[in-house]
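Our platform keeps sequence and structure together, in a single record for each protein. Because each token names a local backbone shape, the row as a whole describes the fold. One such record is reproduced below, unchanged from the form in which we store it:
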Amino acid sequence: MVSWFSLFRKSIPYFIESDIIPVNALPTQVQIGLLQFACESNPDRNQDHAEQLIRQAARDGAQIICLPELYRTPYFCQTEDHRHFSLAESIPGPTTERLSQLARDLSVVILASLFEKRAEGLYHNTSVVLDADGRTVGKYRKMHIPDDPAFYEKFYFTPGDLGFRSFTTRFARIGTLVCWDQWFPEAARLTAMTGADLLVYPTAIGWHPSEREEFGATQQGSWETIQRSHAIANGCFVAAINRIGHETVTDTDGRTTDGIVFWGHSFVSDPNGRLVALASDDQEEIIMATLDRDHIDLARTHWPFLRDRRIDAYGALTKRFLDSAEQEG
């Protein structure tokens, strides 16, 4: 017989419990490897280079290996150009087939960010999770799509429709979001509520060259701080993987943009917000960190934010803004 308590507990979403395997079924400690590198104009060379780095990370002991956002291509969203739609591919497709074989050969989990062609005229910025046996265990389509100078992503990507999710792999339960998603605490919270041990943010972010001297340190600091705060608020590990290099794009009129200087600085934060691995701003690197699941339990029991959430009082979060009449009402 189902107890009244279990029915009551399932009726209130303190935590989303579907498809969460028992904690003792996963290893306590896992090695994470983040691949930070520059992306050139040729997708095939980018793919070959990424696979070389994946093999190196596996040799170094990485069990979960994470790639930057849209790693197969230059960051083409600096301009609105229909020619760039030819860079997209289906999922599953040729790249996921290659990565699936690699994951199986190396017995590693791979997280890859791809330009997905879902149908004619329908494209997504999609993160794929490949388990250590080569299976695709899940994918996430970027939900928050920016539209700012040199980041014209709304021209290319339809907002995601798969929700905020995490996926059980051989080594950990992983929630993946993508770049601009990292600025939204709601996305981190909802993904953590599905049981994620690790939030992964494949990223392509950098400075406008003209702004770097005045605003660069502040921009980069804000980017790091918001993600470390997600680790603290949700009591989980957070990994951010960025590219490096100065990329320019030639538009349809033959003009070359000032470009973006991608700031690297890939990192892993533990559940207390401490940086346990950090890359440079401008060097190709494989950085490694240990995900200790006991640390997650320790953080969540000593700082019990999930316990103390007032879920009965947050309904207004689904509104765009609280106008004065609504506040008075």
User: Anything to note?
Assistant: DSSP finds eight helices and 17 strands in the chain. The chain has one domain: 28-328. The first helix runs from residue 4 to 11.
